[in-house]
Specification:
Elements (H helix, E strand, L loop, with lengths): L1 H26 L6 H9 L33 H11 L5 H13 L13 H36 L4 H15 L2 H12 L23 H39 L2 H8 L4 H13 L1 H5 L1 H10 L2 H7 L5 H11 L2 H29 L5 H5 L1
Length: about 350
């Protein structure tokens, strides 16, 4: 197992470099770079995208002032100064190597459009995203595992049929559409005003008692967490059911029943551990999926200031230090979580040997 983990860790390096190379290259052809953004704001022309027509330009190389649609009329010295400040006076390869060298020491620089370092900015926004990811994952597991086991035991019954219909509907509904539906129904859209419309806490949160803060926090996260859970809940329930059905039909279960064991003991003493292998081992990956996947739309809809919204705003503003810094961290976390998932498999079932399979 040690050699397998070492190979996976070494594989992180070329994989992460490949991710960064692809995304860095793509940004060179995306119109509306940071210099165009600033030039458009200086001239009072609003969003730079309204001033760009035709194909994309190379945002990573030093270009003449007339190359910027939003920079017409601005002094060339001003444009040249912006290029030096952003580092665009250097070739793309040199900028990429310099960036990756800094990233090896987790030096992500400062945001171009916020007076704060990228690390501090991520730390500031992370609690909101962790809240959504953690509570959504826990809620999905608490509901899906018992429901999946029940569906496996009652396979083919009316209970299994109507719950499958509900699960399929939940899987088919996009998270953002379900979030809008929750807002319309329960946040004062057109029907009931039970939950708040935006934010993670109330304005008077600091003045509340400890119990009052807990209730206020739970009151605010209810709708975002439910919206984030809907798709993962459906997937996890069906995964649990199918895992239990596969185990129930195996020979060792028939042997246990033949020995006179009760159905409950057979289910939870013998089937549970084997059936839950794939479900439990997938916890890190599922958390990361909820953490990064649904956070952008959910945070935007409910006006939550988290990492998803930060990434969206950075992409719109072409704030490259924030874009590449968060991409590097999230890519690294995803690769490490993949290794943790494999280790979880071995922890849950020591019979699994990735080393022999790799050989």
């Amino acid at each position: 197992m040690g050699a397998y983990i070492l190979r996976r860790l070494l594989l992180i390096i070329p994989t992460l470099i490949g991710i960064m190379v692809v995304n860095f290259t793509l940004t060179q052809f995306v119109p509306g770079g940071p210099i165009e953004q600033i030039a458009a704001q200086v001239q009072g022309q609003g969003d730079v995208f309204a001033n760009i027509s035709g194909g994309g330009n190379d945002t990573g190389s030093a270009v003449e002032a007339q190359g910027y649609e939003g920079a017409r009329g601005l002094p060339p010295e001003f444009i040249a100064q912006l290029e030096r400040e952003f580092g665009f006076d250097k070739p793309p390869l040199e900028r990429f190597l310099s960036m990756m060298g800094n990233y090896l020491t987790f030096d992500f620089g400062r945001s171009w459009f916020r007076s704060i370092s990228v690390v501090d900015l991520v730390i500031e926004k992370m609690p909101v995203s962790i809240t959504l990811g953690l509570w959504s994952t826990l809620l999905a597991y608490l509901i899906s595992i018992p429901l999946g086991i029940r569906k496996a035991v009652k396979d083919g019954t009316r209970f299994d049929t109507w719950t499958s219909g509900v699960i399929i509907m939940g899987y088919a509904i996009p998270a953002f559409l379900f979030a809008v539906l929750l807002m319309v129904l329960f946040a004062g859209g057109s029907y009931w005003r039970i939950f708040p419309l935006r934010g993670l806490t109330s304005d008077n949160f600091a003045d509340l008692s400890t119990w009052g803060q807990i209730k206020d926090y739970a009151w605010h996260i209810t709708l975002p967490v439910i919206a984030s859970t809907i798709s993962s809940f459906a997937t996890l329930t069906l995964l649990t059911k199918n895992s239990f059905l596969d185990e129930i039909n195996k020979q060792y279960v028939m042997t246990a029943r033949a020995k006179g064991l009760t159905e409950r003991r057979v289910l939870y003493a013998h089937v549970f551990r084997n059936a839950m292998l794939i479900v439990i081992a997938g916890f890190p990956a599922m958390f990361l999926g909820v953490f990064f996947g649904a956070s952008i739309l959910i945070e935007t809809i409910f006006s939550l200031d988290g990492l998803g919204r930060l990434g969206f705003e950075a992409a719109v503003q072409r704030d490259y230090p924030v874009i590449f810094g968060t991409l590097y961290v999230f890519g690294l976390m995803s690769l490490v979580v993949g290794i943790l998932s494999d280790m979880m498999y071995v922890f849950v079932d020591p019979r699994i040997d990735f080393e022999s399979r790799a050989g």
